[in-house]
Amino acid sequence: MAHLWFKGFAEKIIQYRWITIFIVVLCSIFLGSNLMNLQIDMDQDTWVPQDHPYVKSTKVIDRVFGGRNVLIISVVPKSGDIYQTKILRKIQQIQSDIESLPEAIKHNILSIAAKKVKDIRGSDEGLVVKRVLETIPQTDAEMAALKQRVNNNPIYINSLVSPDGKAAAIIADFKIDTSKPSYQIVKDKIDTIINRQLDSSVNIYTAGLPIDFAWFEKHMMKMPLFFGSAILIIMLIQYLSFRSFQGMILPIVTAILSVFWSLGFMGLIGVHMDGMNTTTPILIMSVAAGHAIQILKRYYEEYNRVSQDQAQLPAKKINQLAIVNSIAHVGPVMFVAGLIASISFYTLATYDVSVVKHFGVFAGSGIMATLILEMTFIPALRAILPPPKTKEINSEKQKGWLDRQLLSTANKLSGPKAPRILGISLLAVLVIASGSYFIEADNSLKNYSTHDSEVRVHDRAINQRFGGTNTIYFLIEGKKKDTIKDPRVLNTISKLQAYLESQPEVGKTQSIADMVKRLNQAMHNEKVNHNSIPDEQSLVAQYLFMYTLSGSPQDFDSYVNNDYSSAVVWTFLKTDSTQYAKTLGQAVSERFASQLPKGVTLRMGGSLPQTIAGNDSLTYGKIKNVGQMALVVFILSSLILRSLVGGLFVTLPLIIVVSTNFGVMGWLGVPLDMGTMTTAAMAIGIGADYELYLLFRFREEIQRTGNLQQATRNSLTTSGKAVIYVALSIAAGYACLLLSGFAFYSRLAIMVIATMIASAFVAIVFLRAMTATFKPRFMFKDTNQAITQMSLKPAGEVNVQQ
């Protein structure tokens, strides 16, 4: 029944081919008009679930204290230390220039030249608070005094000045415009400021989250180049596969239009492009080319058959019949496979992470566009184009190396060795899948770049001299005013800092407790044993008040809020590993949360904890999502095949592919992150196509021939061969990302290539072995009893259909 409906549909498309093409062109113009609405979105919030505790605490910290987008600039003299007039002038100018940027959070721009960076000392009159660097020293004595002021205040050592005094840092914090978030804009402005100070006397390095995201953004902007490379690679594979103009061009036309339509649809509904979606056009193009290959392969078969059976017909009529017959046979399975893949990707919209939702909408819409175009525009266009030339048809008849290998494989899979092959395949899958035990959910923006890249070189240079280039914050919150002035709270903060600084990868911490201890020591004639928190809250309040008489209340804005009800501990790390930060955060919570007075809470936030939230969502959401997609595939396959066993035959191989996907990641040490998490979804969304095309073709052949071996050979040398072309096209399309020099893309490429290999193997070998071993009724029920007895003819007697 389905075949008849698709046959009638194809006949209508050919009858009204010019109208069809006109409608498609109009749709393309309409969707294309929305492309201008697309924008690159680097907003951190799109990467994380908004209801995660780390995200909530980060929003509080960002609103009250800032510190979400910290950037560190290191000025390193090529000779001597920083206590030189020309070096100090450069630091002062960089400080001033950054303060003038509209994106800068001025109270979080710190260097020894900042107004709020003060020298605290005691005197006979009380407390003396002065700027560390108000004017550039002109004499050796003045320079020595500056050096002494810095060394008298340990909070500045390892954060603003390196312990050996041979490097200085400017710590800056920025607000990113959420209406058009771009870190590259900030980096460009910083580079301009730095370039004005660069000369033969200094090296200047930059690091921090804005730099990491800017490099990510820079690589994103190169994606059109890789997309173009993927097009050329896929076209080459198409030509080598079909040796024809139509075989090379028409699948690419489908692919490019599918990407164009899906991008236009995203612009129409207001979905932005982001780091994850930049590679999705290659996915859509590859999948679209895959569907086109399947129907094109059948088109050549039907053209060959019709030209032999009805040779008296004109070439134009033969061409139209071949188009109709190919859609009648492949249309139902293409519709089912495309629908399953599209719905599977759309289930990603249930994720609580925006970039994953966007990926699901983008990929699902691209596959729906492919279905529409392959069922309408391409047959209409093919009906207008000249029929294939004789050499194209003859090329399809010729059996090459791949055909011989597939025939040999078919003989083994349809014979008594099938159960053994199935068992060996399962054993191999178990060995590979066992690698999933070693997989870790981790994310590191810096590790997305190569070891010798500028971003990694600069990061190492700063980490070697200072406390770290990555920041997390511990937020201490009370319900009452002046909670933070309580010595019990301050002592807990001080102990927390001591614990943090004893941990590997933690280079420096800063808090209001450091300032209070420094005030106490200064008021006790610099005695070391008074570098501690006073016992009385009234004394703490008195010291802080005395500070404001010569200093400024805003000097502490980075550490405590106005009414002293909340405070943060700045923690500088030498790594941006989310796994490390998560472990550290859990240890801190277990150790110190109970030490705070009743009503005072401790929680972690910042850009790195936000990424942890994203990874947590991926880790637990991945299991949920794989289950969702597998359930969708099972239900739809069962309905289409009218058999629960049929649904299992489609779904089980996909679960095996996902298991091997995770296993490969574990064995290769590839972490589960924002990029690699998409490959499991691809394994199900694309793998279902392979299973369904082969199942439908095998069922067609077994019902036509009544012979297991012949049906296996025919299905493998047609749909199976097309599956290999598709897998090769997708793998080759993504392989161009291996040349990107960006680990986010290269890891994704490696996993997609591995997934395509596994998907093709499972569809061609594993599924065929399952079929021969269990002989499911849903595939054999319409054949006669002789078929179920599997009385095979010798291989030489089989008439292979091409």
Automatic annotation (TrEMBL):
<keyword id="KW-1133">Transmembrane helix</keyword>
<feature type="transmembrane region" description="Helical">
    <location>
        <begin position="676"/>
        <end position="696"/>
    </location>
</feature>
<feature type="transmembrane region" description="Helical">
    <location>
        <begin position="748"/>
        <end position="769"/>
    </location>
</feature>
<feature type="transmembrane region" description="Helical">
    <location>
        <begin position="722"/>
        <end position="742"/>
    </location>
</feature>
<feature type="transmembrane region" description="Helical">
    <location>
        <begin position="630"/>
        <end position="656"/>
    </location>
</feature>
<feature type="transmembrane region" description="Helical">
    <location>
        <begin position="359"/>
        <end position="381"/>
    </location>
</feature>
<dbReference type="GO" id="GO:0005886">
    <property type="term" value="C:plasma membrane"/>
</dbReference>
<dbReference type="Pfam" id="PF03176">
    <property type="entry name" value="MMPL"/>
</dbReference>
<protein>
    <recommendedName>
        <fullName>SSD domain-containing protein</fullName>
    </recommendedName>
</protein>
<keyword id="KW-0812">Transmembrane</keyword>
<feature type="transmembrane region" description="Helical">
    <location>
        <begin position="225"/>
        <end position="242"/>
    </location>
</feature>
<feature type="transmembrane region" description="Helical">
    <location>
        <begin position="14"/>
        <end position="32"/>
    </location>
</feature>
<dbReference type="InterPro" id="IPR000731">
    <property type="entry name" value="SSD"/>
</dbReference>
<feature type="domain" description="SSD">
    <location>
        <begin position="252"/>
        <end position="384"/>
    </location>
</feature>
<keyword id="KW-1003">Cell membrane</keyword>
<feature type="transmembrane region" description="Helical">
    <location>
        <begin position="248"/>
        <end position="270"/>
    </location>
</feature>
<dbReference type="InterPro" id="IPR050545">
    <property type="entry name" value="Mycobact_MmpL"/>
</dbReference>
<keyword id="KW-0472">Membrane</keyword>
<dbReference type="InterPro" id="IPR004869">
    <property type="entry name" value="MMPL_dom"/>
</dbReference>
<feature type="transmembrane region" description="Helical">
    <location>
        <begin position="320"/>
        <end position="347"/>
    </location>
</feature>
